Amino acid sequence: MNLRKTWTVSATLFLAALGAALPAAQSQYAKYLSAADIELATGLKGVKQVPQSADADGDLNFARADGKLILSATFVPSSAYASAKSSEEGFKSTIKGVGEEAFVGPLGGPPLYILVFRKGAYAVILNTELEGTTRARLTIEQLTAIAKIIASRM
Asked: What is the pLDDT of residue 40?
C-alpha cells in the first residue's frame, strides 16, 4: 500500500469514526468538476470520468486517455478540514488563493500529490496518482487550477 493510499485510508477511517463522512453520491458532486474542466486546467486530451473502484476511491474520479487514473476528488464536511490539516502525514504547507484555506501534502513529499481546500460546507481532497515514486501525474499547479474551478462553483 503506497503512502497516498495509507493517508487516504487513515483520513477516511478517521472521518467515518467521527461520523463526518457524507454519503457518496457521485452525481451530487458532478456539478463541480468535469473531464472537460480537467483538460482545460491541465492541457491533457481524452480525460474521462471513471466510476469508483478500489483505486478510484473519490466521489469524482478521472483517468487519462490511456485509462490511468489521474485524479480523485473527495468531498467531506468543512469541519473535517482541521483534522486533515493536523494530520502528521498529510500536511506539507499552506497555499493561498484556493477556497477559504488550503494546503498541499504529503509531508514526506516531494512529490506533492495532495491538495485539500475548504470552502462553504465542504472540504475537498484532491489526490493525483504517482508515476513510480518520484513524479505525480498532475503537478501542484495543475491541482491548484482544478481546485479553483471546483471552488468557483461552490
From this structure: 95
Q: Is the peptide bond between 51 and the residue preceding it cis, with omega within 30 degrees of 0?
A: no
Mean pLDDT by 10 residues, the chain (154 residues): 48 42 59 95 95 89 94 91 77 82 74 85 91 86 95 94
SS3 assignment for 73-142 = EEEEECCHHHHHHHCCCCCCEEECCCCCEEEEECCCCCCCCEEEEEECCEEEEEECCEECCCEECCCHHH
The DSSP H or E segment spanning 47 is none
Note the pLDDT of residue 16. Answer: 42
Q: Of 124, 135, 154, whose CA–CA distance to 68 is shortest?
A: 135
Closest to 49 in 3D by CA, of 26, 74, 22, 28: 26
The pLDDT value given to residue 53: 87
Q: What would you report as the CA-atom Rg of the chain, rounded to the nearest whole angstrom?
A: 14
Could you give the C-alpha distances from 103 to 63, 126, 151, in angstroms and in order? 23, 11, 14
β-bridge mates for residue 135, sequence order: 131
Q: Where are the domains of the chain?
A: 3-152
Q: What residues have CB less than 8 Å from 87, skipping those under 6 apart? A: 7, 10, 11, 105
